């Protein structure tokens, strides 16, 4: 009996120990397979005509769509789930592509910009409502004996902010998440001691409160959406366990070439990506067309001569575009050629 009890006790302990190891193993596996942060861009929001008009009545003088876009960027960045790119970088691409405010909510345009910017996902959206309303009821006065009693005025002031947003996967061009934010801030003022904070009773604090509610709702819903594809891995082959001994590949490099689509200081966006064989950390030559050489007999072009401006190292890449850091001294311009080194 005693031996049997001991065995049972040992079996229980062994089972508990194994369960603990399995649990610990599961936790470690979950941590090791945690998805990397996605790079996200946020376009300035489109603003409905009604929302723009009523925002002006509330004292909003700046571009409401730009301001709301910045608030979404700030909130998502503070939450830390995504890597956000600066709006100024996106604005530069928009200017280079000769796009207008009317393109803010266009899905195809957003995908194009996202690919050039090298992001995994891009958020577009609109401000559908931005209004302030007042409801007032008046109670007439009266008399108690010979004593007059003044009437009372009761008012309810309401600010409503409505925002919609979509998260688009720049690799597939599909919508992976939608969000709807509806912020409402209400203030009741009434009785003989009613005090209004402004001419119409709607304060700046109410506008801020309603806007913050809407933005927080948008961020929460976007963050709970499925993650967009990592652009640089969109068409990557299945991973293979590499040997520990370094092996020098004898496979010749596939040559590729493209052109410069955007220049921002030393940062270049080029029109060639992983689909052509380009990889992160590749070094490419940056060149400018000089002239063509023709066969003097047939007039056929036999060679094109380029002047080398410098080199650039690839830092990010997706299927059809890449971002590179330029190290040359000559000025680079849009449409200059880039090509792989031998």
Automatic annotation (TrEMBL):
<feature type="signal peptide">
    <location>
        <begin position="1"/>
        <end position="30"/>
    </location>
</feature>
<protein>
    <submittedName>
        <fullName>Curli biogenesis system outer membrane secretion channel CsgG</fullName>
    </submittedName>
</protein>
<dbReference type="Pfam" id="PF03783">
    <property type="entry name" value="CsgG"/>
</dbReference>
<dbReference type="InterPro" id="IPR005534">
    <property type="entry name" value="Curli_assmbl/transp-comp_CsgG"/>
</dbReference>
<dbReference type="GO" id="GO:0030288">
    <property type="term" value="C:outer membrane-bounded periplasmic space"/>
</dbReference>
<keyword id="KW-0732">Signal</keyword>
